[in-house]
Amino acid sequence: MRLIRSESDRPFADRREAGRELAGKLSAYRGRSDVVVLALPRGGVPVAFEIADALDAPLDIFVVRKLGMPGHPEMAIGAIASGGVRVITEDVIRSHAISDSQIDAVIRQELAELQRREREYRQGRALTDLHRRSVILVDDGLATGSTMWAAVQAVRAHEPARVVVAVPVAARDACEAIADITDETVCARTPEPFAAVGLWYRDFSQTSDEEVLALLQEHAQRVRTGSTDGN
Fold first, then answer.
1. Which of 146, 178, 184, 193 is deepest in the core (most CB within 10 A)?
2. Domain contains 231
3. Using CA atoms, how far apart are residues 199 and 203, in angstroms rounded to an integer?
């Protein structure tokens, strides 16, 4: 486990600027053939685009849907994710006596949105092979960290060599909790007290489906023409 935090109190202009700052903290991964950058859509995509561009690494999305506990959806009981991965936290299921039918109902609800996003963003392309790769998971921030927790667990099912989480801003507790389950975690801002991710961006307008698709296509075009890293 390696945890990198910055104590800067300067807000980011937008997600793209945040990605460029994070890329500087991930420079050890630049140019390596085993690195894959995975963005959690939608807000993580503009951040990850800049990281992948700077590191000269492939960019893909990793759609993850947290499975919330029936009656307490903020508590994760597992996750479903890109590639057909399903992670269930068995000890939580047992301790709260959650039935199979309740779990199935939650999965059906979240699966519908996951499949919509997969169709919209991936357009028939398969998930990048993560086996024995160094995977950098990116989002635009961590509040409770539950969605990223789910993403890490789901990525682990693909047996990567290394899992790295990189976010521009996070609650300190969430950052430290994620660091416990990753090989490396980079949180560029860990303000105290923490109120909301959006307060650390001057522009935190919602990332649209159209923007996600455009950035994925732009990065793919740069890879094809050899013009990543802004060249």
1. 178
2. no
3. 9
